[in-house]
Amino acid sequence: MNGPGPVADQPLEPAAQAPQALPRGKQRSFEVTLDNFSGPFDLLLGLIAKHEMDITEIALAKVTDEFISYIRRLRRDGEWALDEASEFLVMAATLLDLKAAKLLPSGEVESEEDIALLEARDLLFARLLQYKAFKGIAGLLSRQLAEEGQRYPRQVPLEPQFAALLPELVWRTSPQDFAALAAKALQPKPPAPTEVGLSHLHAPKVSVREQAGIIASRLRAAGPQTFGVLTADAEGTLVVVARFLALLELFRAAVVAFDQQSPLAELTVRWTGPESAWSAERLGEEYDNAEYDDAEYDDAEYDEVPEGH
Amino acid sequence: MAEDASPAVPDGAAPDLESLPGGVKAALEAVLMVIDEPATEAELAAALGVPAEQVRQLLHQLQAEYDGAGGASGADGAPRGFELRSIAGGWRIFSRGDFAPVVSRFVREDRTARLTQAALETLAVIAYRQPVPRARISAIRGVNVDSVVRTLLQRGLIAEAGTDPESGAVLYRTTSYFLERLGIGSISELPELAPHLPGLEHLGDLDDLAR
Amino acid sequence: MAEDASPAVPDGAAPDLESLPGGVKAALEAVLMVIDEPATEAELAAALGVPAEQVRQLLHQLQAEYDGAGGASGADGAPRGFELRSIAGGWRIFSRGDFAPVVSRFVREDRTARLTQAALETLAVIAYRQPVPRARISAIRGVNVDSVVRTLLQRGLIAEAGTDPESGAVLYRTTSYFLERLGIGSISELPELAPHLPGLEHLGDLDDLAR
């Protein structure tokens, strides 16, 4: 077992958390409060990476629940923390995978599958660190751009006597080509997106509500199942994340319960809702109602994953 | 350009120039070096937050320095390659006249005898929307067009066409040189846009949406 | 720029720079006054008709003078209000950063506009992984980057760089404007990723798995 050593033994620098160019210029931070941990989400991740806190001791559902209420609180105050929200999806997926990997019987590696899982865990740590590395670099870029922005280049028009000396302009554009250029340039640009398509991704669009429906019918049909089983057929990370979010939604709607015998035991999900007359349609309203018209949030990236059509 | 020449500095940012290296004089130099049209003493005084009289004195001091007076310029007291000139009531830094032959040679060897795609597209917007203010061109193009507009002006393809009565913004139009290069007799001979924009006949209505 | 610095100058305009007040150094300054993008040492040498090595020395000398070294600048040895910098592969004159609050009032371009965190992170990924397809940026960032990539394209910080031969996906790279805005000469001057990425040398392998 090669373990997470080479990666996880390295300190995750809090210094990598460069000052961020938050749209509103106001520092916001998502704080989690758990039985055994209280502090910024980023720090939590740092601690996990350093193995100072065992992933399975963290009530993942609770973290997510707190995050969702945090987002809801912000929305009520008229603010949207979209950068944080999208970041959270990355983190949630990673945490989830980490947790899944950690649920292996410890110490004994018996099958190739186990080895693959352990290697996957290393890769996940690496991915987490890679993401954080780019975050750190983004902070550096931000500072450098701001500092460099203080200097203005000299770029003045040539004096007429010099402009007259410029080599004769090469012109090879016909009136028709020129009109085509104009038509292209004048075409209305796509409006600032309030919702971003996933069409460019090779992954299909995944609906949280749809995934909730799948989970609900399986739990009702087959009884309690582990999260691993529930996501065993997921085609990709996006589906795992959607199922994960769906579970939290179901939990919030009080139709599922989670059982975990001990900190290292497997997480089991069981259905506690009505046996019939239950529909996933009622779930996920906070995603559907996502409205943010502030142009500064052009880079919104959040609502695409949970949005279902 | 500073819009208001009132000494009351907007956004209360009157910087403590005296404490900076080079002080007010260097600050004045910084402005003169990067402005692309001459600035008046009043504008400079307002931006620097100092009396116009002080600006006038500093301008003449800089002018003398650049001309090599008092050995203050190059260590050898030689003039610099640039000079500070006042034209039509405004001040700006230019290359020194003595070096016109060198500058000419540099300009003649310019590689950019061809317009960039960005310049062509901007020219197209101006041609079909003239007279048009720069801000609207920017809005349509979705990018800052300052340097491209400068190139087109320099190339004589566009010219200023008065100001917008409402906003006071400078308007741009194409020139007869543009018509000549495109090979048409007048703007009315520009090919219609419609064939390129199926279903979009009322382009005027779209401008406000073109962001 | 003419690639050959052959002494045979068109229309015999090789000016006798040494005889002019200020000599080659001032002539170099004069040329720096008219450029509107960074000029390489070779271009400047061709315009002046002197060896590139001499141009390089003079550029560094001017740079030091403007920075106030050796009392050669202002009579008091204070730095000038402008500076000469080598960025994005060429040399160019800038106003000194200290005076941004004053200078910004005269300049239309807003160089202080901030990018969002999402845009900065995406820019970072493109800078270090270029040329890179959008899907790979998405994979590293874990989210869709469509609108952010569009913003960066519009701001001129990135550009398309052909397509991936295998997948046919559009590739993205950073532009020379990006280098200019960062004040660096080339991509190789970007801060190292390694200190931020302890123990991970084979990141290339990870990107494909990070989906």
UniProtKB/TrEMBL annotation, chain A:
Region feature Disordered, mapped onto this chain: 1-24, 282-309
Residue stretches of biased makeup (Acidic residues): 286-309
The keyword Iron is assigned to this record: no
Keywords attached to this entry: Chromosome partition
Superkingdom in the source lineage: Bacteria
GO biological process, one term: chromosome segregation
Transmembrane regions listed in the UniProt entry: none
Listed Low complexity bias regions: 10-23
Protein name: Segregation and condensation protein A
Native source species: Arthrobacter mobilis
Automatic annotation (TrEMBL), chains B, C:
Gene3D superfamilies reported in the protein's UniProt record: Winged helix-like DNA-binding domain superfamily/Winged helix DNA-binding domain
Taxonomic superkingdom: Bacteria
Pfam families reported in the protein's UniProt record: SMC_ScpB
Matches recorded under InterPro entries: ScpB_csome_segregation, WH-like_DNA-bd_sf, WH_DNA-bd_sf
Entry keyword Cytoplasm: yes
GO biological process, alphabetically ordered: cell division; chromosome separation
Keywords carried by this UniProt record: Cell cycle, Cell division, Chromosome partition, Cytoplasm
NCBIfam families xrefs: SMC-Scp complex subunit ScpB
Listed name of the protein: SMC-Scp complex subunit ScpB
Gene name of the encoded protein: scpB
